[in-house]
Specification:
The protein has one domain. The protein has two helices and no strands. Helix content is 22%, strand content 0%. The protein is mostly helical.
Length: 102
């Protein structure tokens, strides 16, 4: 997650990695509907790139349990954002997370 300072934990499970389908496999109707729905111009306020135009076949890659329970995200929210008065000992200073949101 680009908003949360974290170490890189590699996942070596084959079920975690999915690949987009080839462009010619996407029904034309679907691409046309998407193009009409998102007909807008960016105004420069966006900090990160927009999502890609990749399509994924959810029948080819069904949802599976990855083993990640979200503990790191919730710990960050509770200890760093929601309850700022807590005594946290880590490599980040008290306000370091705010730089990601500015």
């Amino acid at each position: 997650c680009e908003y949360i300072p974290q170490e890189l934990f590699e996942c070596y499970s084959e079920s975690c990695e999915i690949y987009p389908v080839d462009d010619d496999e996407v029904p034309g109707q679907m691409k046309d509907a998407d193009a009409e729905e998102f007909d807008f111009e960016l105004d420069g306020w966006a900090r990160w790139d927009m999502p890609t135009e990749d399509y994924y076949d959810t029948t080819q890659f069904p949802e599976e349990f990855t083993g990640y329970d979200g503990a790191e995200v919730w710990r960050f929210i509770h200890e760093r954002i929601a309850f700022q008065g807590s005594d946290i000992v880590d490599e980040y200073n008290d306000d370091s997370w705010k730089a990601d949101f500015n």
